[in-house]
Amino acid sequence: MLVNSVIIILREVLEAALLVSVLLVLSQKLQLSKKWLIYALLFGLLGATFYALNIQSVSLAFEGVGQEVVNASIHIILWLTIALFIISIRNREHSKVIYSTMISCVALAITREGSEIIIYIQGIITIPELTMPVIAGSIIGSGIGISVGVFFYYFIDALSFQNSIRTGLFIIVLIAGGMVMQITQLLIQADIITSQQAIWDTTLLLNERSLVGQLLYAVIGYEATPTPIQLYAYIITLIIMLSLTIRTLRCFTIREQV
Amino acid sequence: MNNLRQYLFFGFMFVISMPIIAAPVVELEIRDHLFYPAELVIPVDTKVKLVIINHDATAEEFESYELNREKVIPGLSKGIIFIGPLPAGEYPFFGEFFPNTAQGKVIVK
Question: Phi-psi bin for A62: left (phi > 0), alpha (psi -120 to 50), beta?
């Protein structure tokens, strides 16, 4: 049970931790205030608690696929705010937009992942013999997740200005790709998008059950058996996000030359 | 204008015909962190609506790598997952929150 809860919590914490660390280090490099994080954490915790408290009614909504609809909507808004963030940092005068996108990204990620953690712990804590291992597992899991975030923060922070922006945005683009994988997956599960046969199976190469597979799934949306729709959606999102990123990077290069 | 009317007509027909081609329903229950039935048999190449009813007070997460499905089923509640159309075979699933006991498989034939 201990190992199981470590993995469950780590998987949920990792994506938000990475997002926070990259946005924080970009704030640092762009000489923006980091106060936004307080608001993001606050809204995120409120959102996660609200979602967890209402999980029963959400589950029953939309003829039993309410969770898929709500989660997919959260991911879609998150994806859009990521795109807006990449565009808005081209001009530091748009600092209000930059701050709002960062707050909304992190708050939405915490709402989505945090609610699952609350639901998991809330249920399991009612079983006395599991309380200790699950609390210990949760502390270890979130500890590892936050450590990975801290590691990425200092790793990117140590790079030159240009390289730090490049690396940070690249990680964000990968996270956005993972988001799209989850959106399509949820819509297929809810029968809003028609299900299809998988185009390939890379289970032998990297099993989704393995620790690495699970972590890659959580962060970049690794899928051993993607369907054609998922693959197309992934390619399209990469093209959109990468072209936005390249234009943003060009703005920074021009500014540095001036 | 005529075209628009045609589209609307077909759209309407599509919407009202949807319940007719609705997927067959299969029920799966969770009790004391176990799945009942532990083996679900569903027809090959058919989309199935899986209704998961959780009788426990604790939440469970239905998860299957083979089916590519993952969903939290709150305590004393239920949720729906669509699976298939699938080729014949066995597709294991488990309850992520209680993986030691909550295990089962979907048998497609």
Answer: left
